[in-house]
Amino acid sequence: MIKVLKSGVLLTIQDFGRDGYRHLGVSKAGSLDPFAQIIANRLLNNNDNDAVLEITVGLCELEFTCDTVIALHGADLQATLDGQAIYPGWTYTVKNKQVLSFATGRAGLRAYLAVKGGIQNTQVMGSKSTDLNACFGGIEGRALATGDEIPITPYYGEFIKVGAIAPAQRKLIRLHPSPHANLLGEPLLNNFVSTAFKVSSNSNRMGVRLEHKNNLVHSHSLPSLGVSPGSIQLPPSGEPIVLLNDGQTTGGYPLLGTVIEADLHQFAQFRPLDTVEFKYVTFEEAAKAKQKLDGHLHQFSLALKNNL
Amino acid sequence: MKPAPHIYALTNSSLLLDASHLDATDRLSIQKKIWALTSHCKCTDEFTDLVPAMNSLTLYLKSGKHLNKWLQVLPSLWNDIKTSTFKGQHHLIETIYKGEDINYVARYHNLSADEVINIHIKTKYHVLFLGFQPGFAYLHGLDEQLHTPRRDEPRIKVPKGSVAIGAEQTGIYPADTPGGWHIIGHTDTALFDSTSEQPCLIQPGDTLEFVPLVNKGATHD
């Protein structure tokens, strides 16, 4: 077990989330930075989809009640194990009764903690992820609280310490073109791609809200249509919302486009007041960016195999 | 030439079929085509998700390699698809018409509470699509006599199972949620259960009727 001594800002159990239920109004949920989840799991020779802890901002404290091996990835939230500093991208053996504490970070927002064998909570609708809005999955469908016990399987074996380097953050986010480009008009879209947005403190796992001083207001209303993580909605107020994993499945605002798959995980790490800019790319460029990311993961796996 | 829906590639692995611009006198007939198309695409097993919405269908592919194929075949599928091939289920929603706002709705329309109930139960509603929260169905068919502007002050909590009216729509809340619709009744029918094999009772394209329950000591004075 992992016992939650202090829950911090938002601590949840996540995996890749739910597919196949969007027509019923069920959101994807799942890790906002699946890339960090994959690396943390691969460092431990886990399956990519094994459930991990998503730690937002930090300030939490976890006590292990058995031996295991852990790996951290994503933001560096200045973690310590019994007071000793530990770093993202490395594996660490943990003994019964040891305490893992997170302070907070200077950059990035979310850290991912994988444990050997994955977190062992029950799957609901094909996933162990917490759906915070619909209140199911994870542990009772809620953020973890002080006193909660997170089920894990003890691991007593030896484990070689290995590491992975995190890829650099991007501030220029690549987008697929909008199906509503004609409706919104070229001047507005030009304005959109020449704006440096600030991430609003009003952002969460449902979506990142973007503030700016340019004029993107409009008066279009649309019949509701299917939306997904990465869809960028433009409400009439002119402040774009980048939908993330807990976002609703249908919405009635015009879309500015969709974040390409290779860049979407960046939104897990943006903090309030960070700046973001956008650029439309072709489908070929988007596919290439995805190949590059997959290639990076593949090389990483090969390197691990040679080491383990 | 038959009017065609707009078809867009949203990403390397998702598409949008948008029929909202089609000049149809009966929106429901377009929606029926969308349900038939959804059901056809589901059988191909090439999609992780198919999300019908208001006169549109968003298709999420398992693999990006089939994107171009679907961009090409969707227009002809749209032309050829027979709406009669799609059959939704019909649900009877037993309702106790004793909601907090039923008298308000009645007064607003110069009707009695009984008249409100009689108008509300006489319609066979079509489930256009689901969204907003798991199991929340957008229904088509609320009688104009009951169209009621939303509350000025939304409630912080509309209880699970509430049957409510908001502007031109009526609906049932599958879980507690904030909301500005007028509550006219309550149902014990479970609409969403994450632990069940079939988590949602109602699917897009189904039909439903409200059936008043009067023998549980419910009155609506």
From TrEMBL, chain A:
<keyword id="KW-0547">Nucleotide-binding</keyword>
<protein>
    <submittedName>
        <fullName>Allophanate hydrolase</fullName>
    </submittedName>
</protein>
<dbReference type="InterPro" id="IPR003778">
    <property type="entry name" value="CT_A_B"/>
</dbReference>
<dbReference type="GO" id="GO:0005524">
    <property type="term" value="F:ATP binding"/>
</dbReference>
<feature type="domain" description="Carboxyltransferase">
    <location>
        <begin position="23"/>
        <end position="296"/>
    </location>
</feature>
<keyword id="KW-0067">ATP-binding</keyword>
<dbReference type="InterPro" id="IPR029000">
    <property type="entry name" value="Cyclophilin-like_dom_sf"/>
</dbReference>
<dbReference type="Pfam" id="PF02626">
    <property type="entry name" value="CT_A_B"/>
</dbReference>
<keyword id="KW-0378">Hydrolase</keyword>
<dbReference type="InterPro" id="IPR052708">
    <property type="entry name" value="PxpC"/>
</dbReference>
<dbReference type="GO" id="GO:0016787">
    <property type="term" value="F:hydrolase activity"/>
</dbReference>
UniProtKB/TrEMBL annotation, chain B:
<dbReference type="Pfam" id="PF02682">
    <property type="entry name" value="CT_C_D"/>
</dbReference>
<keyword id="KW-0547">Nucleotide-binding</keyword>
<dbReference type="InterPro" id="IPR029000">
    <property type="entry name" value="Cyclophilin-like_dom_sf"/>
</dbReference>
<dbReference type="InterPro" id="IPR010016">
    <property type="entry name" value="PxpB"/>
</dbReference>
<feature type="domain" description="Carboxyltransferase">
    <location>
        <begin position="5"/>
        <end position="202"/>
    </location>
</feature>
<dbReference type="GO" id="GO:0005524">
    <property type="term" value="F:ATP binding"/>
</dbReference>
<dbReference type="InterPro" id="IPR003833">
    <property type="entry name" value="CT_C_D"/>
</dbReference>
<dbReference type="GO" id="GO:0016787">
    <property type="term" value="F:hydrolase activity"/>
</dbReference>
<keyword id="KW-0067">ATP-binding</keyword>
<keyword id="KW-0378">Hydrolase</keyword>
<protein>
    <recommendedName>
        <fullName>Carboxyltransferase domain-containing protein</fullName>
    </recommendedName>
</protein>
